[in-house]
Each structure stands twice: as structure tokens, then as C-alpha cells.
Amino acid sequence: MVFGKIQLDYVNLKIIEILSKNSSTPFVEIAKEIGISDATVHMRVKRLIYQGIINKFTISINHELIGYSILAYIGINIIGNKQDVIINLLSEINEVLEIHEIYGKYDLFLKIRTKNNEELRNLVKKIKNIPDISGIEVINVLKTNKEDKNISFQDEINKKSKEMG
């Protein structure tokens, strides 16, 4: 698999796949699963970070258990060409998890989390009061059935494994 100029071989794909499932997996455990030395895993991970393929190691939180049970998306329309200013303002709001510039019905699409509907209501008011926002639409999530942060490379791993023998 080629990303720009970067070639990902079987080992790199396997390392990424394992770390995508659990970023705290020890290098020794990854090495055993792949059949290489932990020093090789360490070197490969450092190279993947340097190349910008791995941006950061993070955790996945069960938001329901800590009281952030409301998940919603907000479509925003902007007057004029003020995306950068508005994106900077929205980036400062803790409840805003993702900001996407899109073409279509909205100019921006946000993923947000709040503790309850009252917090959601207050957040919507706050966003509506940002200058140059001409309209917003809130889309409440009733139930999340699948939520992955990364693309699975399992198909590519299987293909590379067959090629190897």
C-alpha cells in the first residue's frame, strides 16, 4: 500500500493495526505477534511517527460512563469567507470534538458531546451567537452502533501475507 511516497509493508501495516486497536500495547507483545524483535518494532514505530503516519497515541473513553451521554453533529452555514476565524473560535470550545470543512448543504460539520440536553441547548446558543454564522442544524445521535477512529488494514495485511508466501 502506498501513501504519497511512503510504502507500507506487511510489518508496518500490522504494527499500525495492533496499535489502532490498543495504543498501549507493549512493543514486546507486538513483536511476538508479528514474529520480529521488539527493537525492530520500536524502530518502525519511531519511523512511522517521523513520517507523520502515526500522529499520536491516545485513549478511547466510554463517554456514557463519565456522564457525557449526548452525542450530536452540527451543520453550520457561514456568511462570506470567514471559515478560518470561525474554526478558530469553535476550536476553543471543549465540547467540540471534530470540525470538518465540507461542500454541500453546510460549510462546516461538527461532532460534539455534552452531558445533557440543557448543555446541548446552551452550546447551540453559544455557536449561534458567533458572528457570521447564518444558520445551524443539530443532528442528535440516538444510538452509536460502530465508532472506529482508524481505518482497518486487515484486508491489506491479508494480501501482503499471501504475497509473502
Your description of this structure?
The chain is built from 6 helices and 6 strands. With 165 residues, it is of the alpha+beta class. The protein has 2 domains: 58 residues, Arc Repressor Mutant, subunit A (Orthogonal Bundle); 71 residues, Lrp/AsnC effector binding domain/regulation of amino acid metabolism (RAM) domain (Alpha-Beta Plaits, 2-Layer Sandwich).
Physical arrangement of strands within the biggest beta sheet: 4-5-3-6
Contiguous helical run count: 6
The quaternary organization reads as single chain
How far apart, in Å, are the first and last alpha carbons? 17 Å
Mean pLDDT: 92
How many structural domains are formed by the residues? Answer: 2
Specify the CATH class of the largest domain. Answer: Alpha Beta
* CATH level 3 topology of the largest domain: Alpha-Beta Plaits
Strand element count: 6
**Which range best describes the helical content: under 10%, 10-25%, 25-40%, 40-55%, 55-70% or over 70%?**
25-40%
Radius of gyration: 20 Å
Architecture per CATH nomenclature, i.e. the level-2 architecture of the largest domain: 2-Layer Sandwich
Order of helices and strands: EEHHHEHEEHEH
Low-confidence stretches: none
Q: How is the biggest beta sheet arranged?
A: 4 strands, antiparallel
